[in-house]
Amino acid sequence: MNETIQLIQIIGSPFDNKRSTISFTENEIKRLYLLAQKNKIGLTFLNALNDCNLIEKYSLTEVFQEEKKRYIEQCKTVTRISSLLNSIDASYAVFKSRMPFDATPNDTDIIHFGTKKEFTRIIDIMRENGYVEASGFVDSQQKMLHDAVLGGDLNPHPKVKDVYDVDIYQEISASYLHYITKGKIQTCVLKRDDQIIGSYKSLNNEAELMTIIVHSIIPEIINTLFVYYATLHYIKIMDNNQIEKFIQLIKDNHVSHCVKVHMTIVATLHEKAHGYLPDKIKYIIDALGYSNQEYNRLVQTNYTMPFKYSGKTLLRAIAEKMGEFSFIPSLFNQGIRMLHPKMLYWVVSQVYIRLNRETY
Question: Which residue from 176, 235, 255, 196 is spatially nearest to 78, judged by alpha carbons?
Answer without folding.
Answer: 196
